[in-house]
């Protein structure tokens, strides 16, 4: 979901599903250091819920691309270790 907030900011909400709650937790721990100040995440069972807010759509898309790339890579590593 993408929405414009007050003051010209934009926000995106993501709900990513993983194979297990353990996988979701490991992936979240792997990427949370890079998220600081850009993405707020919460693990709920097999899901990672992420909120991204930025000053512009361009900035939001850059952050979203980075977050999804890092999350996909972390998921591949976690899947190989299980």
The CATH homologous superfamily corresponds to Alpha-D-phosphohexomutase, C-terminal domain
| Helix-strand sequence | EEHEEH
- The assembly state of the depicted protein chains is single chain
Show unreliable segments: none
Q: In CATH's first tier, which class applies?
A: Alpha Beta
Number of domains: 1
Rg value: 13 Å
Widest beta sheet: strand line-up: 1-2-4-3
Annotated CATH topology: TATA-Binding Protein
CATH-scheme architecture: 2-Layer Sandwich
Overall pLDDT, averaged? 91
List how many beta strands DSSP finds.
Answer: 4
Net shape: elongated
Précis, in short:
This protein is an alpha+beta fold and 82 residues long. The protein is 49% helix and 30% strand. The protein has a four-stranded antiparallel β-sheet.
Description:
This protein has 82 residues and is an alpha+beta fold. It has a single domain (2-81), classed as TATA-Binding Protein (2-Layer Sandwich). 49% of the residues lie in helices and 30% in strands. It is built from two helices and four strands. It has helices at residues 21-35, 57-81; strands at 2-4, 10-17, 39-44, 47-54. It has a four-stranded antiparallel sheet. β1 and β2 (10-17) form a beta hairpin. α1 (21-35) crosses α2 (57-81). The radius of gyration is 13 Å and the shape is elongated. The mean pLDDT is 91.
Write the layout of secondary structure elements.
Blueprint: E1 2-4, E2 10-17, H1 21-35, E3 39-44, E4 47-54, H2 57-81
């Amino acid at each position: 979901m993408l929405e414009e907030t007050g003051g010209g900011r934009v926000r995106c909400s993501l709900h990513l599903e993983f194979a297990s709650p353990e996988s979701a937790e490991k992936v979240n721990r792997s990427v949370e250091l890079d998220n600081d100040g850009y993405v707020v995440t919460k693990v709920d069972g097999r899901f990672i819920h992420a909120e991204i807010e930025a000053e512009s759509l361009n900035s939001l898309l850059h952050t979203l691309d980075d977050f999804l790339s890092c999350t996909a890579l972390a998921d591949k590593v976690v899947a190989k270790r299980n």
